[in-house]
């Protein structure tokens, strides 16, 4: 079980905004569950956004008016008989806070108010909702979470990211509308957070390295490449002529067992080996060293992988990162990887 404090640190690297001065006090709070943690982050983040003002944009609005405005909808006016009231259906653009970003935030806060968080937190969130009186609630099931961000809406990126985690972690029952906690950060979401955390940690703490999620091209003997899967690395670290490809793995079991014998997950090993060899061939005309690593999030299993193999001229390592320890020790392990492998 990962301490909630460590989940906060992982989130703070995944969302760099959380490392700003305004959020520093959250790092010292004790949260009784991950829902409370996300509620606290949203509580703080929404408050900060309100100080700068909720984002506005032009929103199309249609209503019956006595004074003509925008485009007239004559067919709808006839159908609804608004002309009998000396009114017409008009469609016009209104500069409004009732945009999807704000609708997502409001709907997520309403979801949190039904969840297992403290009364004081609920009280604080209700106060924030007063500023969303002109914003409609939205069905989060139909939201496109792959939003586009730019300079004008960058401040919403972390807020919408947290809303996504809350939405995916909480379920509303069909019977009485109450909200119950799922395994808030289940395997799939923890896997993504784990990958993002590792990447952003190296980007922030090791500026001497180049850290990215590069694609690796298949090194083919001809031009036939149809239906080949994309080789997308989780983390690729490079320094001078040295490259380390890290595949982050968050599984319930770090090894596979057959007939009482523990071995590495074969697909994982084949995958990292393929990445390394194709990258190796890609750089064949340059002086370089390419190595690979499977970095598992450590479980409570008795057998913990800690192996280094030399395969066809390349080094492939398999390590486990214990996320259930003081975060300073997690940092030290990641720093050692950068030091020893690059």
Textual characterization of the structure:
- This protein has helices at residues 4-14, 34-52, 74-80, 100-112, 119-129, 156-169, 187-205, 266-282, 327-341, and strands at 57-65, 71-72, 88-96, 170-172, 179-181, 210-212, 215-216, 231-232, 235-239, 242-249, 255-258, 261-264, 289-297, 307-311, 314-321.
- It is α+β, with helices and mostly antiparallel strands.
- The protein folds into 3 domains: 11-54 and 100-185, no CATH class; 57-96, no CATH class; 189-341, Trna Endonuclease, Chain: A, domain 1 (3-Layer(aba) Sandwich).
- The strands form 5 sheets. Strands 6-9-10-13-15-14 form a 6-stranded mixed beta sheet, sandwiched between helices. It has a 3-stranded antiparallel beta sheet with strand order 1-3-2. Strands 4-5 form a two-stranded antiparallel ribbon.
- β9 and β10 form a beta hairpin.
- α1 crosses α7, α2 packs parallel to α5 and α2 packs antiparallel against α6 (156-169).
- The chain is elongated and about 85 Å long.
- The model is unreliable at 171-184 (pLDDT under 50).
